[in-house]
């Protein structure tokens, strides 16, 4: 198995894609708006992915946070609020905000489970910082690290009740970035002591089964390499100081924060200690290059992947979708009162 997650080009698998995935045997797949049209279409697509290698328990992920980060959108699916909505409610009633975040995530997770998605790249545990770039902005769960952790734990619990695994991101923190890593490499010059604030939510939720790195240069830890490609950040900060022992994905390797070809980036990320290289854009040349460059998945990564996929049950214990939405809305209304 190749330690990579690949994107798909359209609403169904092309013949070349199917043949490549059959041969390469990637760890999983990621879906985007270009892969989303209807419930029936998405279920057919995820069923087809599972059929390639006969794996019912397959890593199929999506970015479905709510707010401006949503691949599944109205009118087919519900619109979900951004993290900031729960942060505002927390100011008034912390326990109510936690329950609202959990109910919201459970309803969102039911949408995902219904169409065969097993992992949501959510929640963002990035601690919001005044004056930072808006790439995180209202996606954040707050400026206080323990509030971020409390709301993040509720989101993970809600997703799990729906039978979907969450993924904490962007370890070790994107909240201080003054640039959008989709477009350029952010450089964070905070001291190691200051960065402890950023680490706190990740440390509090270090038992999460899945995490995602940040394409950010932290000069206090490594003056040369962004977090995703830094052995110091991955092995010393994420694994040891944070204590994260789960499956560690890179952020999308196609982002302009990184240099070199995409296959070279993947090789460097795995060499730095990441478990899985995430390549989102379904460019066949890049995917073939990644499959050729990367080693076979290690036993340690295979075990982490297995644990990630078995960490949550099915959606049989979840509540009713409409009731969850109504409960969330009633709770959120307290912030507007």
TrEMBL record:
It comes from the Bacteria. GO terms for biological process: carbohydrate metabolic process; peptidoglycan turnover. InterPro entries: GH, Glyco_hydro_3_AS, Glyco_hydro_3_N, Glyco_hydro_3_N_sf, NagZ_Beta-hexosaminidase. It catalyses: Hydrolysis of terminal non-reducing N-acetyl-D-hexosamine residues in N-acetyl-beta-D-hexosaminides. It holds the Pfam family Glyco_hydro_3. The keyword Hydrolase applies. The keyword Hydrolase applies. It is an enzyme of class 3 (hydrolase). Residues 15-287 form the Glycoside hydrolase family 3 N-terminal domain. Belongs to the glycosyl hydrolase 3 family. PANTHER family: BETA-HEXOSAMINIDASE (PTHR30480:SF13), BETA-HEXOSAMINIDASE-RELATED (PTHR30480). This is beta-N-acetylhexosaminidase. It comes from Novosphingobium mathurense.
């Amino acid at each position: 198995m190749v330690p990579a997650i690949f994107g798909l080009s359209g609403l169904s698998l092309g013949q070349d894609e199917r043949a490549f995935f059959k041969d390469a045997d990637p760890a999983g797949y990621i879906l985007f708006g270009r892969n989303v049209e209807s419930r029936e279409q998405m279920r057919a697509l995820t069923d087809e992915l599972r059929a390639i290698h006969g794996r019912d328990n397959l890593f199929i992920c999506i970015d479905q946070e709510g707010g401006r980060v949503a691949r599944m959108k109205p009118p087919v699916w519900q619109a979900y609020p951004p993290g900031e909505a729960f942060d505002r409610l927390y100011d008034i009633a912390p326990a109510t905000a936690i329950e609202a975040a959990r109910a919201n995530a459970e309803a969102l997770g039911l949408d995902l489970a219904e169409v065969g998605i097993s992992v949501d790249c959510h929640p963002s545990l990035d601690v919001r910082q005044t004056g930072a770039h808006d790439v995180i902005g209202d996606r954040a769960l707050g400026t206080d690290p323990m509030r971020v952790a409390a709301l993040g734990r509720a989101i993970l619990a809600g997703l799990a009740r729906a039978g979907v695994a969450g993924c904490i991101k962007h370890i070790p923190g994107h909240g201080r970035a003054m640039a959008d890593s989709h477009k350029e490499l952010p450089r964070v010059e905070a001291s190691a002591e200051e960065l402890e604030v950023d680490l706190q939510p990740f440390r509090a939720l270090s038992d999460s089964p899945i995490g995602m790195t940040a394409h950010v240069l932290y000069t206090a830890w490594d003056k040369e390499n962004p977090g995703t490609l830094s052995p110091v950040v991955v092995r010393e900060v994420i694994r040891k100081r944070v204590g994260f022992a789960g499956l560690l994905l890179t952020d999308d390797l196609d982002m302009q924060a990184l240099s070199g070809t995409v296959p070279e980036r993947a090789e460097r990320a795995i060499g730095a200690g990441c478990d899985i290289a995430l390549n989102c854009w379904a460019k066949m040349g890049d995917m073939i290059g990644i499959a050729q460059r990367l080693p076979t998945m290690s036993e340690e990564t295979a075990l982490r992947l297995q644990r990630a996929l078995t960490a949550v049950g099915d959606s049989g214990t979840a509540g009713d979708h409409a009731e969850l939405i109504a409960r969330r809305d009633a709770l959120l209304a307290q912030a507007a009162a």
